[in-house]
Structure formats: C-alpha cells, structure tokens
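Exercise: predict the fold of this chain.
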Amino acid sequence: MTPILLALLLTAAVPTDPAIEQALAAAGPGTRIGLVVADEQGREIVAVRPDDRFVPASNTKIFTTAAAFAMLDTTAPDGGGGATVRLEGRDVILAGHGDARLSSAPNCATDCLLDLARAVASRTRSVRDVIGDDSAFPDERWPQGMSWNNVSSRYGTAISALTIDDNVTTVTVTPTRPGAPPTITGDGYYRIDNRSITGGTKAALDATRIPNDDLLRIGGTLPVGKPATLTVGIDDPAHRAAWRLAAMLRTLGVRVTGSITVRHRPASSADDPATRGSAPAARPPEPAVLARLAPPPLREDLRVTNKVSQNLHAELLLRRVGAIGGSGSVADGQAAVRAMLDRAGVARWTYDFADGSGMSNYNRVTPRAAVRFLRWTQMQPWGAAWRATLPVGGIDGTLARRFHGTPLDGKLFAKTGSLNAANAVSGFLIAASGRTLTFSALANDMPGDASATGAIDRALLAVAAAN
C-alpha cells in the first residue's frame, strides 16, 4: 500500500470508493489532498481530510465574490465605484472609488477615461498639476503573504481605489537578426533595460523590476519571426492613471504646466490593532465634480472575476465590502467576510484569509468548511446568480480545457485555484444520477510544485460516476 493510499484510508471520515482513492493517490508521494463531497441533503458521501486546513489559492475568491453579492448592489450601473474628475484651482483631480474597469484603451466603449478628459477640456485649455487620488481606500497595495516575485506581473499588480487598464502596461519585443538585441517598444511609462537576444527556437523572455522602481529589465531570447508582448504590473496605479489622463489632455489641446502627483490615504490607522473594529473617522464629502463615470452593473465584473480568476478585481471587491460601514481597508473587508461566514455557520477555526484573491500564502480553509459555505450560498436570494459566475467544465473560464469530452462536460460549475504547491477546485457537479453534489478539492505540498489537477479531476469523475 502506498503512503498516500494509507493516508487516505486513515483520514477518511466515511468509506471512500476505491476508484476515488486510486485517482487521488496518482498525485504522488508528499502531496496532501482534501476532498469533501455532499449530496443534496448535505450528507457527506466523500470525506478525505475534511478538517485539514489547506492553502486554497484562488478558491479564496469564492468567499470574496459571495460577499460582494450579499452586500453590494450588483444589478444597477456602478455609479458608486465610478471615477470622477474635478478642478481645484488650476489642478485636475482624478479620483477613484473602487471601480475595476476604468479604461484608457483607444477602442474604449464604456467606463472611459477619455470621457473625463473631455469634461476637463470643455472647461479649460490649461491646467497645472494632474493628481491621481485613490484615498477612497487606505493605501494597501499588496496583500500580506503574497510572493514578492509576483509584484511585477499582472497577477500581482498593485491594488488601488483608482484603477486603470487593470493596472498593467504592455511592452512589445520585436526580433531583429540572430545574436542582436530585439527592439522593445512601450508607452514610455517605464524605462527599459534591454538585455534580451534574438535567437533560440521559442520565446523565453522575462520582465523583472525592483518594486517601486521605474526601470524594467527585459531578458531572455526571442526567435526570429513573430514579436512578443509582455504584460507588466504597476506599483502606483493612481500615478499611472493621472499620467494617462495628462497624456489625453494634451491630445485634446489642454496644456499641462505642472507635474503628475498622487494623493494616498495612509494605511497605518486602518491596520492599527488598537483601532481595528472601531468606527472609522468621518471623511469629508467629495467636492463637486465635473464628471462622474457610471460603469456597467457590478454583476458583469463579478462574472469576469470568477470566470478568469481576476486577482485585482477580487481585491477591490474585498475593499468595497469593507467600505460599507468601514474604512475600505483590508481589515474591514476581512471583518465583512467573517460576518458572512458566521451567518453561514462556518466555524472560525476552519479558515483564515489574508486577502480577497488567493495570492496570499497565509490563506487557509478546510474542505468541509468550503462545502458548508457553498451549500449556504444556494439558499440565499443571490445564490443562483452567484453560481452563474463560476467557470463551467469544458465550456468556459479557467475550466474551458478541463473535463471537455468527459461525463462532466458542461456539468461541473466550480472555482479553480493554483498557487505555489497548491491546486484547488470547489463548487457543484451533476452526477450520473442527475443529482447535484457540492464539493471541495484542495491539494497542497506537491513536490517540485507539480500539478495535482489531473488527480483531482479523475477523482471528481469517479465521484460523478458512482453517484
């Protein structure tokens, strides 16, 4: 008997089907997997390590997006989160309120920064400073426990109440002749240190940057032929948004005579244990604005957040639920999620969340707690709408390439997760009997960061076949 099979037998709370045991054992030695499956009455039909605590990776978004459905108006145009622009003397103030979708793209159709630039241009032909104001939330740009190497990537870009273009920029790397450096073009926001070489048989480029530095180093190789595009995270989204607005103003014929600056709200007061949980200090009302954007309903963004596992958007949702009766801090968002889990009857010891997206290695949850919560969501008025935001096996989102052509094609609705030595998938599946089962599969500690998704998927197929 393999060590994994022995561990499964010792930790199973109910007898486990041999096909499920065999599937999970294929993950290999050292891997720790928890799997709980409950039927429509809540009876557990599979329980492997049900009360072990696991790093859930992006399964964290299950709790964050559910809190948004429970606490925010997801059906009306999102005017409360929309960006505004106003004049203070000769300065332009671009202020964000938590909207994740503000765009400066040339083909922007809704929630466009250009509309705010036009509002300024209609009032004046000369301004001094252009100021990005993200003080609607405390300045907490990265979650505790996130790996530093993610900071320069789109997966770990900074969080800000003033978000623009998903807080990323792109650079295009174009090959030249073998052995020579490629040419690199961007929009000028970062300085470029080009250490890459044209050559090789496939693209092997990397972009690195020291946090809060504007020097972007591009290394690696790029074969002769097709250019490559690299996506790079932003450290100060409020500055980036103001920088983009200033560029648009110049294009519209408005002179910008001053500098690009920012207004942040210090995070220290929100993080102080002595004041945590106390009523937030009253903030003065926002001055009269020239224009305010009303993004599309938040429900549309919640669908994107869960389908593609968008980290930045999930982090903004955590802060927005924390702004209801709070300061918009991470701590206030965590308190809102805890209150929801209390209502769901989820025991406090079964989870810990340091962020809203799952990028933090500090997050923990048990499979049994996840299943209990998932079942609770389906008893809420918003439960069906929330479930519709989950990826569908073999169909879309992060499950588009999983379960395709299997009996669970189009019959599994779940949130995925992947992080350092962590894989997860939790949600609902329609078994062979036609019954809807609720499940949570969490895997940690894979040697060499090998993937456990294959073993998990085979186990879920076995569950579906046997039920």
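Check your answer against the key: The first helix runs from residue 3 to 11.
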